[in-house]
Amino acid sequence: MADKKILTTCVYCGTGCNFFFRVRNGKVIGVIPSPRGAGQGKLCIKGWSAHEFIHHPERLTVPLMRDGKEGPLQETTWEKALARVAQRLSDIKARTERRHRLFHLRQMYQ
User: What pTM did the predictor assign?
Assistant: First the structure.
């Protein structure tokens, strides 16, 4: 079976370099730099090793949240985690002036 290439964006910093995951038999086995995006066909050492965490046995696969500000992290659903994020962003919006708000968003595919 031939390898598949899946375009993605590196998560290690805010630069937004694009690369392809090399996938063989449903498992990510490496990366291939993409000529598109900020890296222009080049990757740093973090980008070159971005595939290594995907199949790591200690990788988080579900969201974790605390009850309040203290206590242990506990598994929760994506719905509850995203609802908490949305509520906190709404709270920030309600208590701050527009000129004091800034969110960093990057274009995922360039």
Answer: 0.62
Spatial separation of the C-alpha atoms in residues 36 and 105, rounded to whole Å: 18
Model confidence over 49-102: pLDDT tens digits? 988 888 889 989 999 999 878 889 999 999 999 999 999 889 988 888 777 666
The number of domains in the chain is 2
Closest to 40 measured CA to CA, from 14, 21, 16, 23: 16
> CA 43 to CA 31: how far, in whole Å?
10
Please report whether residue 110 resides in a domain: no
Element (DSSP H or E) covering residue 64:
strand 64-65
- Looking up residue 33, the CATH number of its domain turns out to be 2.20.25.90
User: Quick one: CA dihedral 30, 11, 63, 57, positive or negative?
Assistant: positive
